[in-house]
Design goal:
Helix content: 10-25%
Structural class: alpha+beta
Number of helices: 4
Strand order of the largest sheet: 1-3-4-9-6
Shape: globular
Strand content: 25-35%
Radius of gyration: 17 Å
Largest sheet: 5 strands, antiparallel
Distance between the termini: 46 Å
């Protein structure tokens, strides 16, 4: 790797490195390269924890690991059906002027009766209620429950079976989640 001071003004935070990693996977990356090694203790700790929780032996035993979904299934972009932004929050940047990009995005990979969902708030602002509807489902398919949350802290995501959507009351800036959700 190149020396950090020659390219970046600072090393990324733990939340930023995970958000960048999950966004890369969501957008098609099939490998992850290190930031710089040796790295900061914060990055070393969070990437080690991430690898263990999302791709390690325990993850493979619990839900098949990330590879089961990302490498073995077609992914679907799932932009939030509704995100509550605070007043005055900056809108997301998009390379094509005039196109709004929500700061929260997700990607889902269905395998059998489960789907892996990656959700990232890439914005610099906390957001209120976030909900996702599986628009790619076949007629009659319904979300049933969150089976596992290999990555993410705090309040759980909840399945609203009446609306057939996954809901959380909000996300912090740069917060990321990896969820395994069952459907029928």
């Amino acid at each position: 790797a190149f020396p950090a001071q020659d390219f970046w003004l600072r090393a990324p935070t733990a939340d930023e490195i995970i958000a960048m990693t999950l966004l890369a996977i969501s957008h098609g990356a099939r490998g992850i390269a290190g930031w710089q090694f040796p790295t900061t203790p914060e990055i070393q700790a969070v990437t080690t924890l991430f690898a263990h929780k999302v791709m390690g032996t325990g993850a493979v035993k619990r839900f098949g690991g990330l590879g089961k979904f990302v490498l073995g299934a077609k992914g679907f972009s799932v932009f939030p059906a509704d995100v509550k932004l605070p007043a005055g929050a900056p809108v997301g940047w998009h390379p094509h002027p005039g196109i709004y990009q929500d700061p929260v995005e997700g990607k889902a990979w269905p395998v059998g009766s489960e789907l892996l969902l990656i959700v990232v708030n890439s914005g610099d602002t906390d957001v209120g209620r976030v909900n996702f509807r599986p628009e790619f489902f076949e007629a009659g398919e319904k979300l049933t429950r969150v089976k596992d949350m290999p990555w993410g802290d705090g309040e759980p995501w909840v399945v609203d079976s009446k609306a057939n959507e996954l809901v959380r009351s909000g996300m912090k800036a740069k917060e990321s989640f990896v969820l395994v959700v069952e459907f029928s």
